Backbone:
């Protein structure tokens, strides 16, 4: 893992959503914010989110 990336688990902890990491993964698979699909992920592998991707998720879940 690159130091400039973050995993959904790390991001859920940052957002205070420790037990809701599945919501973040669900959003990654089917984003409902009009921003289009998340690129750069191979099915069956762990997500490693770029800063831009993580910021998009932060914006989405801070609104909810």
Residues:
């Amino acid at each position: 893992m690159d130091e400039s990336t973050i995993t959904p688990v790390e991001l859920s902890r940052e957002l205070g959503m420790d037990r809701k990491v599945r919501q973040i993964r669900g959003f990654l698979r089917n984003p409902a914010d009009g921003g289009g699909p998340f690129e750069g992920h191979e099915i069956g592998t762990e997500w490693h989110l770029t800063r831009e991707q993580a910021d998009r998720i932060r914006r989405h879940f801070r609104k909810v």
Observations:
- The CA atoms of residues 10 and 16 lie 10 Å apart.
